[in-house]
Amino acid sequence: MSGRFAFSKGLKEVRFLFCQTGEHSAATRSFLLQNYPAMKKDNPATPILIRDASGTLPKVYARFEFGKEKSQSLEGLSDQEIEQTVSSLVKNNS
């Protein structure tokens, strides 16, 4: 797949955790509002989970084959930095 958010073949799930009202999660909420449709369009078979809970620091998890999981904090990042972080995380399963 050649889309902007084309995930690696070994990726089984992407999970975003953040606070629904906290200022520290504002960029993550903005990123998801703008980019979730494109991510889902480019990867219709891959679950993209959105988990919001009060007081949760923004973080993204990528689960790959054989239960291997990687995560990256999104705290303090801009929309563009979040896009780079997510793109790097979902394409690199080593």
Automatic annotation (TrEMBL):
Belongs to the complex I NDUFA2 subunit family. Residues 20-93 form the Ribosomal protein/NADH dehydrogenase domain. Keywords: Electron transport, Membrane, Mitochondrion, Mitochondrion inner membrane, Respiratory chain, Transport. GO terms for cellular component: mitochondrial inner membrane. The keyword Membrane applies. It is found in: Mitochondrion inner membrane. PANTHER family: NADH DEHYDROGENASE [UBIQUINONE] 1 ALPHA SUBCOMPLEX SUBUNIT 2 (PTHR12878:SF0), NADH-UBIQUINONE OXIDOREDUCTASE B8 SUBUNIT (PTHR12878). This is NADH-ubiquinone oxidoreductase 10.5 kDa subunit. InterPro entries: NADH_Ub_cplx-1_asu_su-2, Ribosomal_mL43/mS25/NADH_DH, Thioredoxin-like_sf. It comes from the Eukaryota. It is a peripheral membrane protein. Pfam families: L51_S25_CI-B8. Accessory subunit of the mitochondrial membrane respiratory chain NADH dehydrogenase (Complex I), that is believed not to be involved in catalysis. Complex I functions in the transfer of electrons from NADH to the respiratory chain. The immediate electron acceptor for the enzyme is believed to be ubiquinone.
